[in-house]
Amino acid sequence: MRLFLRNSMPSVMLFVLSSALPLLAKQPPCQSPPPNTPAQHLATASCLASHRLWALADQEVRLYRLVYPSSVDGAVLQARILLELNLAPDATGVLDRVLAFHPHAVSVLSLYAGLSETLGDAPRAEQLLMQCTKYAPTNPEVWIRLGDFYLKNGRKGAISSFQRALAIQPNNPLARSGLASAFSNSGDPHRASAEFHRAVVLNQHTKPPQPLVELRFADFLREQEKYQESLIYYDLAVREDPALLDARFGRALSLVKLQEWDLAERDAILCAQDPDKQIPALTLLLKIYQEHGKPDQVAECAKKLELLSNSDIAAKTSGNQIAARLREAHLLENDHKSSEADELYQKLLVDHPEVDAAWLGLGISHANLSLVDAADSDFRRFLSSHPDSPSAHLYLGKILLRKKRPEEARRELLQSKQLDPLLLEARLGIAASFITQARYSEAIAELRAAEKLPAHPPELRLMLAEALYKNLDSPAALRELELLLKEDPVNPRALQMRSSLFHAESAP
Asked: Taking the complete model, does pTM exceed 0.90, yes or no?
């Protein structure tokens, strides 16, 4: 819950840049022939994800993870898909749970770092990237990723990170261009220029070449006012990746300096189609039209720019206010001030009914206030727009258990378990639904399966002891309690239950 309330608003914008990529006219042949093995489901999911068919990809990767729930490849792919479906809290949940199995999995830690950085948690991102370098110190990619983080955030450490990567792989053009950019940022253009020239030569012999290498060098040359020379490398970057709008925008800036108005206009128009670049691209177009003597286009561009600027400012202001209110409500909930959190969520939904995250938070507040009917309604409202959220199905299932509707609860909890097989709480809830119906053998089977997951809580053994005792297996119940007390010698519920079992066994 903590991550959801903090991260839910920015998650809408996680992959804005991808909107600039061309859409496919028809579905790719990813499911021909239909997959029927776990490996085929994973391959199909990867194919569908590469074509941005996220809902279909999610269905396929879930079928794979039902068989291999702790697979790193499956978890990383599902987390990426969940991010695209605007389910950031569930993505972090998937990563958290697979890390319990594979705490040194660099691919999981790296994706988690990217998610943390995108959501504004730079300290957490740095911590995760440092873990990657600790667990894979001879992998140049982890040092490049750390260097990129420092470079992007203007932090010290970029130079040393790229140098570590180059010590492992001296001919890596990305590491070399990153080091060049770091030298440039530190005020050393001569060393930067030398490293950039080495990087582009290395990149010519890389298959496939990395367009970021040319883009970085082109940006450096433009900043050095070498506009004509920068065009050579912008052209290369665009040729290698036509969807790389940063290269098109940089090229347009250089073309403007060279008064190549028609060519600059063409690049700027393409960039203006991307939501993330609309305002700077329109600003550049306005300058082009003014210099090129196109008064009609100047007026039209100025009007669009004014409308976009006003709406952008309004959206940012509104988004900041919403995020602040969500954080405030979450802190109140953490301080056990559910009534105050409830009021804040209610007010937020009056002002911004489109904020789905508030329904989930409101449901949790209502659950903590024992307003189970209201919580039931809140969770269903959230699920109407986010049907693939395992955490929401979990919360609804727990509420239905409290309402003594075990069959309905189990359906929700099974859905939660299917969406994320490592979600231990869902398995405990399923077992609880069986216990309430005196279906003890089924509860025991579910709990035994849950035992195979790492870091299970004391509640698991307590529930297992209860189910075993009610299933007329007192010795097995006592063994579970002894195991728990070995781990936690002062657990009050375990001590009380053991005492009750001893008295029951000794009674005539």
From this structure: no
In angstroms, rounded to a whole number, what is the distance separating the alpha carbons of residues 129 and 135?
10
Are residues 362 and 352 in contact, defined by beta-carbon separation less than 8 angstroms?
no
Q: Which residue in this structure is represented by tokens 């999981």? A: 108
Structure tokens at 141: 């990619």
CATH number of 1-136: 1.25.40.10
Residue 163, classed as helix, strand or coil, is helix
Task: Give the integer Cα–Cα distance in Å for 456 and 451.
Answer: 7
Decide: residue 324, CB within 10 A, 0-12 exposed, 13-18 middle, 19+ buried: exposed
Q: Give the three-class secondary structure for 7.
A: helix
Q: What is the DSSP string of 85-129?
A: TT-HHHHHHHHHHHHHH-TT-HHHHHHHHHHHHHTT-HHHHHHHH
The rounded distance, in Å, linking the Cα atoms of 410 and 344 is 31
- Can you tell me whether residue 38 is helix, strand or coil? helix
Q: What is the pLDDT of residues 220-246, one digit of tens each?
A: 999 999 999 999 999 999 999 998 999
So where are the chain's domains?
Answer: 1-136, 457-508
Classify residue 157 as exposed, middle or buried by CB count within 10 Å of its CB (0-12, 13-18, 19+): middle
